[in-house]
Amino acid sequence: xxxxxxxxxxxxxxxxxxxxxxxxxxxxxxxxxxxxxxxxxxxxxxxxxxxxxxxxxxxxxxxxxxxxxxxxxxxxxxxxxxxxxxxxxxxxxxxxxxxxxxxxxxxxxxxxxxxxxxxxxxxxxxxxxxxxxxxxxxxxxxxxxxxxxxxxxxxxxxxxxxxxxxxxxxxxxxxxxxxxxxxxxxxxxxxxxxxxxxxxxxxxxxxxxxxxxxxxxxxxxxxxxxxxxxxxxxxxxxxxxxxxxxxxxxxxxxxxxxxxxxxxxxxxxxxxxx
Length: 274
Hints:
CATH superfamily of the largest domain: NAD(P)-binding Rossmann-like Domain
Order of helices and strands: EHEHHEHEHHEHEHHEHHEEEH
Helix content: 25-40%
Oligomer: single chain
CATH class of the largest domain: Alpha Beta
CATH architecture of the largest domain: 3-Layer(aba) Sandwich
Distance between the termini: 31 Å
Strand content: 15-25%
Number of strands: 10
Structural class: alpha/beta
Radius of gyration: 19 Å
Shape: globular
Strand order of the largest sheet: 2-1-3-4-5
């Protein structure tokens, strides 16, 4: 008889476009070996309505309380709330899955803290591609990583760097480069838009050496990322075009699916990819 493993308990921080999609599918039993044990949301009434049709609506918790309720904490929050869920999760030795990976750069001490507590930090691929190949190339020598992001202007609206520089994207008729610099600088200026740049940098040569361009492009309807990697093992040239989420155009629909795929690997009998 096959052994019955105890299900891993999952807590979801944030029930927006990504968190609700993941919570709904876990509740439906689509991820074998994982059960939804708690959620945290700013609007409790809205969260209860969102979970009304769940088979087993999860208890609502504070952000800090999620670490007490689960083995895995999935973070789907605005970057400003990152530490409130990340700090307790790492302190309790949990598996922490951040989607606001850019915020991790501002809380890098958590990586060192995880060594002491036994916690692990698992960064999903998100709305990107080729991280397996980039991680493999990084075992050798990577000399260059460049990423060019093109997004419909409305998805960049409200970015701190645009506000700071008084750049308006209203009525834009032609592509406009709004940023060029390192991945670390990119996420500081566009904290809700380019977490993919940080994920790419962590897989490769780091946030200070990874070069990023961001374009507001009225001719595109999809969030597009083009990546060039030069290394001593292979040269990579990759492009992905993501459909924006209907609920939140700043993120791609594939981001929630990436989180689900990352969680599925934790209990799968067969895992494909580096």
